[in-house]
């Protein structure tokens, strides 16, 4: 689409490189690959490795630990994720997670933790990371924090170790990640977040088991899985941040999450719009390309308006996180909610514009709709963000 802010040279360079990589390496064959039935076979390791060699897997590593110098800005990260998501949001999701989890470790880790982690992370082109919060019994609870809530997964101190027991599910890259940031309850007498500690749990830790893969409708090129902790023993040195205050370093994580998630939704919406525009220019009905019919043109204009709305929200949140605008937590909640409405609406209109072809499994329009749909339960649930915004309004009234 035409609009783009005037970006500085470094940010523009990230965007351009990501666009080229997405066009050459991610988009070709993505649609066909989605229908490989075995999730392990479907996993696009070739793209992850190529993206790693091109510097995208490690782009969030601070310069001091071997990452790009100068450090990647939040806006540049979001623009890379937008480009990847426009080609395939499943692939984008693996890179998106790595960026935000790396930034959490950079913010909250000790010097020893950072040196050890970044060395092993840089050395392996397949090293992914994940965040394990959601449990079968607690999804939206993590966001809405009802009275008495804490995670069922517990970690109990035993000498120099912690012993973790419980089950997480729906965890992005849960089966593949070399490192998981696991939220567990360490003080059952308290409520979330004070009850909670974050642990760095490596893939080969005894007692960590990977469970079922939740085969899903969209974002099919990334796996979401169960992760089971069965007397999983983790040394105290792997606590990220402080015990029972682990969550205090997660607020920055959620800011990164919400910005990159806007990049994901922008990429999907942009791709849906471009697919529909291309179809409308080439499909002839009523003796003219259908783009000339006002009924189709109005749909395309509406789609473009929603794409621009998500783009504006992404740039604005990036400005807040880079300190160029005052941070407004309510804006973050509202933008997260609105962008889900927008991406779903854009993808739905895209299917309308593409007619019967739009629902054929070899056509991208249906893929965009499936990918958009996944955002209703993603990031803590769509409605949850309005509920949190409502709470903020009520607090302002008190
Ligand atoms: C693609 C994808 C990737 C994900 N990746 C991760 C990940 O990497 N790590 C991770 O930890 N989690 C991940 N999740 C999980 C995600 O954060 C959860 O799906 C989310 O928290 C919602 O939880 P739930 O699905 O259990 O829904 P539920 O909490 O069961 O909600 C169901 C419905 O009830 C409503 N509801 C629930 N509670 C209330 C209430 N108190 N008041 C009013 N309405 C309510 C919700 O709005 C929703 O409409 C991922 C999810 C998806 C879809």
Structure description:
The protein is of the alpha+beta class and 398 residues long. The protein contains 13 helices and 10 strands. It has helices at 9-26, 30-33, 39-42, 45-53, 74-87, 89-108, 111-123, 141-144, 250-282, 294-321, 329-353, 364-373, 382-397, and strands at residues 129-132, 154-158, 161-172, 179-185, 196-202, 208-213, 224-235, 239-240, 284-285, 288-289. Strands 1-4-5-8 form a 4-stranded mixed β-sheet, covered by helices on one side. Strand 9 (284-285) and strand 10 form a beta hairpin. Helix 11 runs antiparallel to helix 12 (364-373). The chain is globular. The termini are far apart. It binds flavin-adenine dinucleotide. Flavin-adenine dinucleotide (FAD) is lined by residues 130-134, 139-140, 142, 144, 146, 170-172, 219, 224, 374, 377-378, 380-381, 383-384, 387.
Question: Shape from CA axes?
Answer: globular
The helix tally amounts to: 13
Report how far apart the termini are.
Answer: 44 Å
Order of helices and strands: HHHHHHHEHEEEEEEEHEEHHHH
Strand order of the largest sheet: 1-4-5-8
State the helical fraction.
40-55%
Radius of gyration: 21 Å
Q: Bound compounds, please?
A: flavin-adenine dinucleotide
Number of strands: 10
**Which percent range describes the beta-strand content?**
5-15%
Poorly predicted residue ranges: none
Overall mean confidence score, pLDDT: 95
Structural class: alpha+beta
Biggest beta-sheet profile: 4 strands, mixed
